[in-house]
Amino acid sequence: MKPLEQLLRPNIKDLKPYSSARDEYSGEAAVFLDANENPFNAPYNRYPDPYQRELKSHIAGIKNIPPEKIFLGNGSDEAIDIVLRAFCEPGIDNIVSIAPTYGMYQVAADINNIEVRKAFLTSDFQLDPQAVLNQVDEHTKIIFLCSPNNPTGNCFRDRDVLEVLKGFDGIVVMDEAYIDFAPEKSWLPRLNDWPGLIILQTFSKAWGMAGIRLGMAFANKQIINTFSKIKYPYNINILTQKTALDFITQKHTQMQAWVKEILSEKKILTNALKQLPFVQHIFPSDANFLLIKTQNPKKIYNFLVEKKIIVRDRSSVALCEGCLRITVGTPRENRTLISALKMF
Ligand SMILES: *Cc1c(COP(=O)(O)O)cnc(C)c1O
C-alpha cells in the first residue's frame, strides 16, 4: 500500500475532529455537568459512548480482532460512505467496482461525486482480476469487492482476490455482509497481511438485526482512527449499542442456529425451484438468497406481487438478464412461495 498520507484526502489528513464533552472526560464520575444533557429521564438522557467501547470489546472477542481495528457504523452504509469521503476527492478521484454488485457503492459514490469505473464479472460471476486492475488509473483510490457477492450469491476465489490485492497499492474494500452463510473463510484473519484492506460485515443479515442499523468495518489502526474522526460523534445510539450487546452476550448461539436452519431451507427451496418448468437456472449461492434465471421474470414478479409475495427483480441488471433474487425465508414462507409459483 502507498503511505496512508498519500491516499487520504488532504482535508481529511489535516482534519481536527469535533471534540465532544465525553471525549474530554470519559472516566468514572458521580456528577456529569459537562454536556448540557437533561439530568432527568434516565436511561436515555445521556449521550452514548462515542467509541462504543463495551460493544467493541465484545465484538473483538467474537471476531478475534483487537478493538482498535474495529469501526462501527449506522449500517455498513455508513462505512461505505466514510471510506469514500476519507480517500476520494470529489470530481477527481475514482473507485473501481465489479458489476453486477451491491447498488450502494454506486449510490454513495454518486452522492459524493466520485466516478465509478466498472469491471464485469465473468459469465459464471467469478472475479476477473485483470479486468478489475485494467480499470485502475492514477486517480483510483479504492477497489470495492463483495464476497459472497450480491446479487449473484457466490464467493470469489481466493487466488483472484489475492491477485487484486497484490496488483493494487490503494484501498481494497471487501464487503462480507453474507460471510456467515458461506462455506468459505472470511478475510479477517489475513487483515494484518494487507494494510490497505478494509473488511465490511454487518448485523443486518445472519445476526437478524437489520432494524437496529449496525455495521462493522475492520482495518488497520490508522484507517480506523481516520474513520473515527470523520463519523458523527454519536453515530451509534444507546438503544442500538445496548440491543447488540444484549444479543451478543445472552443469545450468541442463536445466530449459528439461524444460519443452520436458513442453509437447510435454502437446499429445500433449491430443490423445489428446480422442479418448476420456467426456472432455467439456479445459480450456486454461498449466501441466504438464490438468484434464479427464468424466461419471463417480470411476469413472475407481478404474479407473485398479486399473491402478496415480494421477491427482487434483478432482470434489468447487466449479466442478470431474466433473473429474480429470492431471499430464503422461514419454512412456512418458502412453502407459500413454492405453492404460489406452482400456480404460475
Ligand atoms: C445487505 C447488505 C449490506 C448490509 O448493509 P447494512 O447497511 O449493514 O444493513 C452490505 N453489503 C451488502 C452487499 C449487502 O447485501
UniProtKB/TrEMBL annotation:
EC number: 2.6.1.9
Example of a GO biological process term: L-histidine biosynthetic process
Pathway(s) the chain acts in: Amino-acid biosynthesis; L-histidine biosynthesis; L-histidine from 5-phospho-alpha-D-ribose 1-diphosphate: step 7/9; Lipid metabolism
List of residues that carry N6-(pyridoxal phosphate)lysine: K205
PROSITE patterns given in the database record: AA_TRANSFER_CLASS_2
Entry keyword set: Amino-acid biosynthesis, Aminotransferase, Histidine biosynthesis, Pyridoxal phosphate, Transferase
Entry GO MF terms: histidinol-phosphate transaminase activity; pyridoxal phosphate binding
Family according to the record: Belongs to the class-II pyridoxal-phosphate-dependent aminotransferase family. Histidinol-phosphate aminotransferase subfamily.
Protein name per the record: Histidinol-phosphate aminotransferase
Organism: Thermophagus xiamenensis
